[in-house]
Specification:
Length: about 375
């Protein structure tokens, strides 16, 4: 059997499995229960947060024989065919390869006819911002006076490229970036189902690197499994950091501690080691900046809760480290490093700028200490 990437294998088939987008699933569920379903939806948000997935779940919710229902049965012909992508009444087109006005016209002409078997004719248009102006105009007609059996679901990462005339006729849903905590929980679930053991540190690193995108998280996990998981060994934090080319959390923690302690020599050594091991210094710097921000937040808020997008045990580490410094120091450290960060990203000698940053950090800590 050929290998199916995790992101595809674990595409949620129901709103229950869709994580981090409860504002979308709840609103849609309520609309279905109250029989107030719009005829055109627009799903927007960054890549890999569940737009296409939700479009397909919504199609099932509308066409399931037991529906319309927020919890489609997953077993009827409509449900199973939508899952496999073969439902005749649910058409999914990719606007990127469907920009011609003739294509849209042809499609338009079929819409007035009743669905072949299911309740609605559903048209899912992915990457809808790629449609040409002419193609939009062709759609506009049907959008203005849609036959009752037609539903449109548009998805796009670039909502600002969608004409207002279209926007105003759609119910718009903004998909959010998914928090690292939520991504971590989903990764844990998937790893459990796949029978693969992993350290919390490894999961934390992947969740953070995914930067809010669940698809990115799954792809990174694939990459890590391909590297370390094939032997049946546990996926470790160090291994994960190596594979992804990012500094391990514990190194960042050590570096932040050295900054707080104004231990310039330790800072330079750690940066030197990272650089020697081939880590991308601007990337390390970005993570340190985030770490410093987290420290400042942990210092000033007793219960930082969702302000810190970290796992429970990481929050404890950050709080312990923050307790070693004054709030003022931490804020100054963050400000100083923030400036240094710009130099690191723009400059050609990242490591030198990085060393400078350490001295800014040391100054900040010194100044406040004395
Ligand atoms: N909210 C989510 N909950 C669980 N898994 C998700 C979620 N969002 C994305 N995924 C995972 O990522 C994969 C890709 O998601 P999807 O195709 O829905 O993203 P998208 O928002 O349409 O992205 P793009 O803009 O790149 O088309 C899914 O197959 C699933 O594995
Ligand atoms: Mg998509
Ligand atoms: Zn069904």
């Amino acid at each position: 059997m050929s290998y199916v990437v995790l992101a595809r294998k674990w595409r949620p088939q129901s709103f229950e499995d869709l994580v981090g987008q409860e504002h979308v699933s709840t609103t849609i569920a309520n609309a279905i229960l109250r029989d107030r379903v719009a005829h055109a939806f627009l799903f927007t948000g960054v890549r890999g947060v569940g737009k296409t997935t939700s479009a397909r779940i919504l199609a099932k919710a509308l066409n399931c024989v037991k529906g319309p229902t927020p919890t489609p049965c997953q077993t009827c012909a409509a449900c199973t065919e939508i899952t496999s992508g073969s439902a005749v009444d649910v058409q999914e087109i990719d606007a990127a390869s469907y920009t011609g006005v003739d294509d849209v016209r042809k499609l338009q002409e079929t819409l007035p006819y009743r669905p072949q078997r299911d309740r609605f004719k559903i048209l899912i248009v992915d990457e809808v911002h790629m449609l040409s102006p002419n193609a939009w105009n062709a759609f506009l007609k049907t959008l203005e006076e849609p036959p009752p059996h037609v539903k449109f679901i548009f998805a796009t990462t670039e909502v600002h490229k969608v004409p207002v005339t279209i926007l105003s006729r759609c119910q718009r849903y903004d998909f959010k970036l998914i928090s690292a905590q939520t991504i971590a929980a989903r990764l844990k679930f998937v790893l459990g189902e796949e029978n693969i053991a992993a350290d919390d540190g490894a999961i934390g690193t992947i969740s953070r690197e995914a930067a809010g995108s669940m698809r990115d998280a799954m792809s990174l996990l694939d990459q890590v499994i391909a590297w370390v998981g094939t032997t049946g060994d546990k996926i470790t934090a160090e291994g994960t950091a190596k594979v992804l080319g990012v500094a391990d959390r514990s190194v960042l923690h050590r570096l932040a501690a050295a900054l707080i302690d104004a231990d310039a020599s330790a800072c330079v050594k750690i940066v030197g080691e990272l650089s020697q091991e081939g880590y991308d210094i601007p990337h390390v710097a970005k993570n340190i900046l985030i770490q410093l921000r987290d420290l400042a937040v942990a210092k000033v808020c007793d219960t930082p809760g969702s302000l810190l997008d970290l796992a429970q045990e990481e929050i404890a580490d950050v709080k312990a480290l923050a307790s070693r410094a004054d709030a003022d120091d931490l804020v100054r450290l963050h400000q100083g490093f923030s400036k240094a960060f710009d130099d690191i990203v723009r400059g050609s000698t990242a490591r030198v700028a990085g060393d400078d940053a350490d001295s800014i950090g040391a100054e900040a800590a010194d100044g406040a200490g004395g």
